[in-house]
Amino acid sequence: MPEEQKSRTTKRFGTRYGSKIRKKVAEIEKKSKKTYKCPKCNSESMNRKGTGIWKCNKCGTELAGGAYIPKTSTGETVERTLKEAKEEEEE
């Protein structure tokens, strides 16, 4: 008997749209459904509630972030720049 394959979230598309696009969609959906670490209580319970809206199931903290992940690379760059500017201002 052949081994069972794990069903991907893009199986609903069948053979439509091409394999490359289906793989990208599967990767995005995997990231968006994953639980992330809450910045306030440090527990792995941050889930996506809507586009760019993230909520911690443990402490109830809601924050705005990226569409598919809570912190985008651009957001991290902005935070780092603001932190450096604040440190220079204090000196």
Automatic annotation (TrEMBL):
<dbReference type="GO" id="GO:0003735">
    <property type="term" value="F:structural constituent of ribosome"/>
</dbReference>
<dbReference type="InterPro" id="IPR011332">
    <property type="entry name" value="Ribosomal_zn-bd"/>
</dbReference>
<feature type="binding site">
    <location>
        <position position="38"/>
    </location>
    <ligand>
        <name>Zn(2+)</name>
    </ligand>
</feature>
<dbReference type="GO" id="GO:0005840">
    <property type="term" value="C:ribosome"/>
</dbReference>
<feature type="zinc finger region" description="C4-type">
    <location>
        <begin position="38"/>
        <end position="59"/>
    </location>
</feature>
<keyword id="KW-0479">Metal-binding</keyword>
<keyword id="KW-0699">rRNA-binding</keyword>
<comment type="function">
    <text>Binds to the 23S rRNA.</text>
</comment>
<feature type="binding site">
    <location>
        <position position="41"/>
    </location>
    <ligand>
        <name>Zn(2+)</name>
    </ligand>
</feature>
<dbReference type="InterPro" id="IPR050522">
    <property type="entry name" value="Ribosomal_protein_eL43"/>
</dbReference>
<dbReference type="InterPro" id="IPR011331">
    <property type="entry name" value="Ribosomal_eL37/eL43"/>
</dbReference>
<dbReference type="GO" id="GO:1990904">
    <property type="term" value="C:ribonucleoprotein complex"/>
</dbReference>
<keyword id="KW-0687">Ribonucleoprotein</keyword>
<keyword id="KW-0862">Zinc</keyword>
<comment type="similarity">
    <text>Belongs to the eukaryotic ribosomal protein eL43 family. Putative zinc-binding subfamily.</text>
</comment>
<feature type="binding site">
    <location>
        <position position="59"/>
    </location>
    <ligand>
        <name>Zn(2+)</name>
    </ligand>
</feature>
<dbReference type="GO" id="GO:0006412">
    <property type="term" value="P:translation"/>
</dbReference>
<dbReference type="InterPro" id="IPR002674">
    <property type="entry name" value="Ribosomal_eL43"/>
</dbReference>
<comment type="subunit">
    <text>Part of the 50S ribosomal subunit.</text>
</comment>
<dbReference type="Pfam" id="PF01780">
    <property type="entry name" value="Ribosomal_L37ae"/>
</dbReference>
<keyword id="KW-0863">Zinc-finger</keyword>
<feature type="binding site">
    <location>
        <position position="56"/>
    </location>
    <ligand>
        <name>Zn(2+)</name>
    </ligand>
</feature>
<keyword id="KW-0694">RNA-binding</keyword>
<protein>
    <recommendedName>
        <fullName>Large ribosomal subunit protein eL43</fullName>
    </recommendedName>
</protein>
<keyword id="KW-0689">Ribosomal protein</keyword>
<dbReference type="GO" id="GO:0070180">
    <property type="term" value="F:large ribosomal subunit rRNA binding"/>
</dbReference>
<dbReference type="GO" id="GO:0008270">
    <property type="term" value="F:zinc ion binding"/>
</dbReference>
